[in-house]
Amino acid sequence: MTATYTFDVFTSLDGFGAASGNWTGYWGKQGPELLEHRLALYREEQRMVLGANTYRAFARMLALSTEESEVRDPWVTRMRNLPATVVSTTVQGPLDWPDATVVSGDAVDIVARLKEESEVPLRSHGSLSLNRALMAAGLVDRVQVTLFPVITGQTGLDPIFQGGADFDLELIESRTLDGHTQELIYRPTLHV
Questions:
Q1: Confidence band of 44 (pLDDT split at 50, 70, 90)
Q2: 138-158 confidence digits (pLDDT tens)
Q3: How many angstroms separate the CA atoms of 6 and 120, rounded?
Q4: Are the beta carbons of 142 and 186 closer than 8 angstroms?
Q5: Domain containing residue 62
Q6: pLDDT tens digit sequence for 97-136
Q7: Where residue 85 sits, what CATH number does that domain have?
Q8: Is residue 67 pLDDT above 80, yes or no?
Q9: C-alpha span between 102 and 68 (Å, rounded)
C-alpha cells in the first residue's frame, strides 16, 4: 500500500508563504481554533518530510525561541517530535531534531520510495521547492492550504507556487477556523 503524501502550507491570499516588515507568525491571525486544529492534525502518527532550507529554518527558529513564544506552539512541538526525513545533499548529521535522518539523492526517487515503504502517512510543512518538484512528479496526494486573511503585496516572501507546474485542483475538504482563516484541502492533477 502506498502512503498518502500531504503538502501542508500556510499562505497569504496573494500566495506568499511569509512576509517581512512587522508581520508576526501566522500574520498575527492565529486563534484558538486554528491552533487546536493544527495540534489535532499532528497528533496522528505520520512521518515528516522536509527539504534542507525548511529544516534549517525550523531548527534555527526553535533554537532561538523561548518556551513562551508562538514558535513553540504545541502543534510545532508535536511536529518536531514526529519521525522526519530531511531530503538534502547539503545537510549533515547529527540533526537538531529528535527522530530525523538525512537522505541524500534525488528528492523524487527518495519520496517515491518513502511512499512505498512507509506504514504511516507522509506530511511536509513548507519545503516549497521540494514540494513543487514532488507535485510535478505526481507524488503529492493532497495540498493542504491554510489561507490567512491578509494580502502581503509589498512585504510578501516565498511565493508558494512560483515556477511550479500548472495543476487542476479538486477540492476535497474545507473549513473556516476562528471565523476568518480558511483551510482548503485539494487533490492536485497535473494540467496538460
A1: very high
A2: 999 999 999 999 999 999 999
A3: 12
A4: yes
A5: 5-190
A6: 889 999 999 999 999 999 999 999 999 999 999 999 999 9
A7: 3.40.430.10
A8: no
A9: 30
